Amino acid sequence: MLSEKLKMAKGNNNNNKATNGKVMNSQHAKSEVNALPPQKSVFIAYILWLFGGLFGIHHLYLHRDRHAFLWWCSLGGYFGIGWIGEIFTIPSYVRDANEDPRFIEEFIKKLQTHKKPPYSGKRFLFEIMIGYLFGQLFHMAIPNHVIMEVDFNFLHWLIPLFVAIGVWTVGNIGREHGVLWHCLLAAFAAYPIRYFIYDETYTILITSLVAALVFDHASKEWLRTPPKRRGICERFFKFSTAMFIYFSLWGCFFYFNGTIPDENGNEVPIHEAFQNFLASAWWTDIKQALKDMYTYAQHHGWYEIWKELLESMDVDGERNAYKVLGLSATASQSEITTTYRKLCKTIHPDTVKDESQRAAAQQRFIEVQQAYEILSKIKSARIRKNKKVVNDDDIENDTIVL
């Protein structure tokens, strides 16, 4: 067991046999409670990495939820850079998830060699990048103007909190972990530099750098016990909550600080454009149409609404086919055939002598052919359906007579 080997690595071999027996029993009980899930497959992990790696799907499969969340936020580790780099590390991730004996032996050697996790340039850089991403995102989400007579500039003092969360989240990936408050204090201590550096971008970057340095030197430790195997409901709740907060910040940014150009090229804030849209005649007409549809459905049923919706969408192309041939919806098959033949004679590309108009004539000729095929197919299907209904009625009548 991993916990037993870690105890040996720490040198705790001076206990008596009775104590060792108790420890082994307690560890055995813990291992039963924290039972391993079915073994993960390297092949499946690579397939998920290939087709969903930019969104961290393979990390979700391997129970690396923090890693998956960060990959989702940064689109594969800042637009695929980290995703590509994982092509050689996935087997190690799988061995970690499976608690493979080979991985455990390598991990114990690291514990014996290094008292705390050694410096990793890749992890340190990612701590800074994610800390900066979270801090910058919260900064962009703060409204730049007064809303409902409230000035939200005081929220800038929460930027260090999001920077620290970003650094701490990266630092707790895999078999390394640390507490939040170290990098949180460091971030709040470094953030007042904004009064000397008036560019908020550099302020957030320096805050992230300081928080990452403090976390690496004061907080980072080995995770000596196997990661807890949480249930699917708990994992889904935590992951969806984190994603909700993340996308809410993006929503606040677009709504309060985003702009769209109007017909004159002027930039209009999105929240003003949205309010103007709700007061527009077009939105009023849409609301009235939805209200009328709901009233109609209450009296006739939602199935009738669905039928009318399909008819208006013209999913089978019947309405457009009648329009192309210039016929009404009551035209018979003989009228459709006669009209089709006349059009073929008059619009055939071979009758057009002007080369510049021949392409348009060819397109028109194809449309007429397609319209005729659609209507002929629909008419034939209806005739077969009507014949079947008539035959069924005849059979029923004969049965009644007998």
TrEMBL record:
It is a multi-pass membrane protein. CDD domains: DnaJ. It is found in: Membrane. One of its GO terms (cellular component) is membrane. The keyword Ion transport does not apply. InterPro entries: DnaJ_domain (IPR001623), J_dom_sf (IPR036869), TM2 (IPR007829). The chain crosses the membrane at residues 43-62, 68-88, 124-142, 154-171, 202-218, 239-256. Gene3D superfamilies: DnaJ domain. Pfam families: DnaJ, TM2. Keywords: Membrane, Transmembrane, Transmembrane helix. Its main location: membrane. Residues 320-391 form the J domain. SUPFAM superfamilies: Chaperone J-domain (SSF46565). May function as a co-chaperone. This is DnaJ homolog subfamily C member 22. It comes from Glossina brevipalpis. The lineage of its organism: Eukaryota, Metazoa, Ecdysozoa, Arthropoda, Hexapoda.
